């Protein structure tokens, strides 16, 4: 039996208060004990106190306690063997003798059977007498908390945690994290725990760590820990639902756009469920960042997961959908929001009213507006403006005016833009009374109308021909110091031109020039108005004003005015215009020359003929020498007529002037027939046919029918064509013996009478029908054998037709000044021969 004395509890208490002095006194009070017993006693005391102090949170005391250097460590080894459950004899390691507990004076206060002590860090219990008692969680947690708070982080902390005299669990770690508030210390404790064999991933631990990092705004740490959590979850197959969602919410609220979305995608890929609050946080983030389509993508994932929006996200989502044009989706969410008993806010109503109105869905917009009023919400001035603008753009001015009146009754003062909208919309729709009323209200409200508003009103008054109102607005505009726009000046000048107020128009044009505008085009437009109106005198007067003011016009308008003068017989005024036209490097084309020639054909007075001949000469066109050459003799021409005509027609560019050449031939043949130059006219027709100006005029249909179509020819050209073509038919029939069944002359209703009268003078067999003169081939063959017919076809029209030729003057077509060089001339005879 070994007598082993233990320290009194009071001694233990005293040791906790003053460890160094108490241990020293205890050391001296045991002088009577044998060395071995003394050694065992002191070591057991220190060892037990160290363990108890670590359990009770007194680790600092055990470090201050020092063992005398002259202590026999062999005896310490002896004591350690007992503590580890072994003795020198290889026994069970239990102390079977009684152990006495002494007080400070050495008196026995308790004795009991000795039991083997526990081994720290291995056993999960303590011995109270002979009874095993597990470590209290509170004590273990307190010990862990004390170590963490003391050492914070680093190798020292991990060393102290490794020296814990018990085996921690994840419950201890979780509870310790709740107590320790320092995020760095919590992370150090957690990462130490992750390296232990007893570690298991814990959703609650991660959630608390993320809370701490979020409080410190350490978002890089959150991202790093999130990656560790994803690795833990994939390795252990444990889902951290709370922590996952908390990470995304924290990052979203911190407006970490890319990081939060990346974490969201990783959580989705891992198959973990995402809660409603996380979806709402992400949607709110993307909407606030101006990325509605990304928010809509997340909303699609949310719908697929069966989650619903909360009230605040509805307030953000509906306006965003509406503003992005997804009106059906926005309205669907609006209905869903009401079904879930969420009360829509004013922002929701305002966005729907505005977007629906701008999209033209006015019925839905008004329905939402009325529903908003049913909720007791008061419309804003902005909403009124949006609704009125929508109705105005849709052309529903009555509804817009009703909302306008309602807005003013509600107490809202229309702004400048709304006044402008109402005035201009009603002015453009022709409701000038309402527009002027709103315009006056606008001025009374203190708003200065813009040049655009003035211009709109002025232009609409000008369009309706209200000269006085338009001039009043113009004067008001200029007196207000505003500069009228180009369109305003143009409208006003056009109005004054239409009203033939030349002097007022000249005054406005000079003011326009003083404003710095280029007035050449506007002045030319006024001149064109006079020309189209047929006011040639006013046009000439305006042209003189332009010249005196240094304002130029273009050659096109000069040509228009020249042709108007020719049409009205003002040949003296026309010649200077033509000279101006030619001197400005403008080229007189064949059409213009032909139109002058047409006037010469119709001319009845010798004085006018002289003017027209001088005008033809002033054109300097190559057709004029040709015309003069036709009426000269072969000695002067130095070549036959046919060669002379062929030479002229070869100089024509038929790709550009084919239509003009056809027009020239028609008028020229009229003139030659009228002048009695039948042989020359035959030459012109022959050359024109050779150059395929009238390719479909003559048709040979084998022995069935031969025909001549003169519907597109002038009177003179038709007569020459009939005589020349019948001569060709006669030659074929008499010399070659080819006799068709019938011969047709297609004249149309206009030339039918003229051709029929000419042929009746030589007793032709042709019968007159509706638009065709036809005869059997045999009858025509017999007719061709008559001498009078031969003379008619070979020489010229007999004198019996002099009366007919005298009447051609009334049958010839009028000139066609409206035909321009840019368009091919129209057939003349088909319109005007009769």
UniProtKB/TrEMBL annotation:
Pfam (any one): PPR_long
Alphabetical keyword list: Repeat
PPR repeat ranges per the UniProt record: 275-309, 310-344, 345-379, 380-414, 415-449, 450-484
Domain of life, source organism: Eukaryota
Family matches, as SMART domains: SMR
Cross-referenced PROSITE patterns: PPR, SMR
UniProt domain Smr: residue ranges: 708-784
Family classification: Belongs to the PPR family. P subfamily.
NCBIfam families: PPR (TIGR00756)
Protein name from the UniProt record: Smr domain-containing protein
